[in-house]
Design goal:
Layout lengths: L5 E4 L4 E4 L7 E6 L10 H19 L3 E6 L15 H9 L3 H18 L15 H13 L3 E4 L2 E4 L35 E6 L15 E3 L3 H11 L3 E7 L3 H16 L5 E7 L2 E3 L2 E2 L10 H7 L2 H9 L7 E3 L1 H23 L7 H18 L4 H20 L7 H14 L13 H19 L3 H13 L2 E6 L2 E6 L2
Parallel strand pairs: 3-4, 3-9, 9-10, 11-13
Antiparallel strand pairs: 1-2, 5-6, 6-7, 7-8, 11-12, 14-15
Helix pairs in contact: 2-3, 4-5, 5-6, 8-9, 9-11, 9-12, 10-11, 10-12, 11-12, 13-14
The chain binds one RNA strand through helix 1, strand 9, helix 6, helix 9 and helix 11.
Length: 475
RNA sequence: GCCGGGGUGGCCGAGCAGCUAGGCGGCAGGCUGCAGACCUGCUCUACAGGGGUGCAAUUCCCCUCCCCGGCUCCA
């Protein structure tokens, strides 16, 4: 059967059938981080969510060209009007590019540890400065931008349809955290190129003097440089809808003269911690490395995928504990299957095959990972019940393969191997269980239970069934 | 103020016009020396409140209340 994938497009706020420009090929650009500090759980949420989407598309047979940028210049901070990179550099008393490198490498490592598929191209804003200057120049030539001393601004009113993505009206862009530059023609106009103050540590020569790019333009340039003037998917956190993505559309379509710049805009919901936004001042700022010290990558991923990518998600110990139970259920089912012997019919395999169909249709419905996980749980439960009732599995490796196939399509349990004891340990365990059986036969339950609880402490759960002991390893 | 997203059973969390989400937890029973796993049943005719349109509304429309986000910092 063929599957129709439906996605919710932020542009238009509606569900649309997913049809790529070139059949079978997905050109996708995801906004990467500004590397002035360690990545946090919010980044993990966004990139894991997109990772699952990408893996699923690949699972469905698409080739995905995935570009995710690194922004290492031009991201202005509000209170000081200072580039975020410069701020990081001042804090750490290093050169801005040294700071950028440090956090970029850290980010790459975090993503690898989380099992996020590497993008095919990871361009860096500072490496496309010539292209940015060129783009800014063209925007001036085309009449979409104007200069004010050494700065260049995009004139929003020149671009028809500005505000289509975020549904913002130019006339309502009246509230500002920062006093807008009074020389701008309209408060909504945004910088393409900024004139640098004296002694600014990170500047480039341009036709307008020494300066640096505005935030937004780098993404337009990198997206078009590596994926072309029109792409299939552009994604990022929900907080980027305005102004970042709105401005990207304006710049890009003004430059290329082609519309739409992006077919499907996908945005991930915010991550909160115990119900509050993450802020260093609240003390609830959790970096990815901190999270990885406490939780396995699969656990973090399962937690994130338990919520739909567009919904907000709240991080808490309780939520993680719940995710852990669910993960253990899946792993338990896979472990049980690895020990089950062939025999019986295809009944279980056929039933799990239905779950795989459920899984696919859930994911085809705007990448509904909670529903997709429900299908995996259903399959795992069937396995546990089947084996729990002592029924033959039929083709355990086939069943395990189907469950792993679903998990892997979400990036879960990619490195799964059934937990096994070493041969020697196996023999020792057998001796212990033999002794325990004899103890129980003589009614010496207390000592038998002692053996059981001591084994449980080291991750070996012994369960007594009619057919003897079943050992579950949670090593 | 403007724009956007939400409020689903004890908790988490899908669905969004008719048909069981799912998970976690709790209770009772079965099986067990016990525990666990597994099985059965219950908690579970839940969808913020009030109107409206439908044969039919958690799902669409309007109003009210509450929460959150964006409005040139953010994934």
């Amino acid at each position: 059967m063929t599957y129709k994938i439906t996605v919710f497009n932020t542009l238009g706020r509606e569900y649309q059938e997913f049809k790529t420009i070139t059949p079978g090929l997905v050109k996708m650009y995801i906004c990467g981080p500004t590397v002035y500090d360690s990545a946090h759980l919010g980044h993990a949420r966004t990139y894991i969510a997109f990772d699952a989407i990408i893996r699923f598309l690949e699972y469905m047979g698409y080739r995905v060209i995935y570009v995710r940028n690194i922004t290492d210049v031009g991201h202005i901070r509000e209170e000081s009007g200072m580039d975020r990179m410069i701020h990081g550099a001042e804090r750490e008393r290093r050169h801005p590019m040294e700071v950028a490198d440090k956090y970029m490498m850290e980010f790459f490592k975090d993503m690898d540890m989380l099992g996020v598929r590497r993008p095919d191209i990871q361009p860096r804003a500072s490496m496309v400065i010539p292209e940015i200057i060129d783009a800014v120049h063209k925007l001036i030539e085309k009449g979409f931008a104007y200069t004010v001393d050494g700065s260049v601004y995009f004139e929003v009113s020149k671009f028809d349809g500005y505000g289509r993505l975020s549904r913002i009206k130019i006339s309502e862009l009246q509230r500002h955290r920062l006093e807008p530059d009074p020389r701008k023609k309209s408060p909504g106009d945004f910088a393409l190129w900024k004139e640098a103050p004296p002694n600014y540590p990170l500047v480039w020569r341009s036709p307008w003097g020494l300066g640096f790019p505005g935030w937004h333009i780098e993404c337009s340039v990198m997206s078009m440089k590596y994926l072309g003037e029109q792409i299939d998917v552009h994604g990022g956190g929900h907080d980027l809808v305005f102004p970042h993505h709105e401005n990207e559309i304006a710049q890009s379509e003004a430059l290329s003269g082609k519309s739409p710049f992006v077919r499907y805009w996908l945005h991930t919901g915010e991550l909160t911690v115990e119900g509050q936004g993450m802020h260093k001042s609240l003390g609830n700022y959790i970096t990815i490395r901190e999270a990885l010290r406490r939780y396995s990558p699969d656990l973090i991923r399962l937690f994130i995928l338990s919520s739909h990518y567009r919904s907000p998600i709240d991080f808490s110990e309780k939520a993680m504990a719940q995710a852990r139970e669910n993960l253990e259920k899946i792993v338990d089912a896979l472990n049980l299957l690895s020990e089950a012997s062939d025999g019986g019919g295809d009944e279980l395999a056929n039933s799990v095959a239905l779950d795989v169909e459920e899984f696919k249709s859930a994911m085809c419905n705007d990448f509904n990972t909670p529903s997709a996980l429900a299908a995996i749980y259903a399959a795992a439960d069937k396995v546990r019940a089947h084996i729990g009732m002592g029924r033959p599995v039929g083709t355990p490796s086939k069943v395990a393969g189907m469950i792993l196939e679903m998990c892997n399509a979400l990036g879960l349990l990619r490195g799964f191997t059934p937990v096994r004891l070493a041969v020697e340990a196996e023999k020792v365990l057998k001796v212990l269980l033999d002794v325990r059986r004899e103890l129980r036969r003589r009614g010496l339950y207390e000592i038998g239970d002692e053996i059981r609880s001591r084994l449980a402490e080291i991750g070996i759960k012994v369960e007594d069934t009619r057919d003897g002991e079943r050992v579950r390893l949670t090593l």
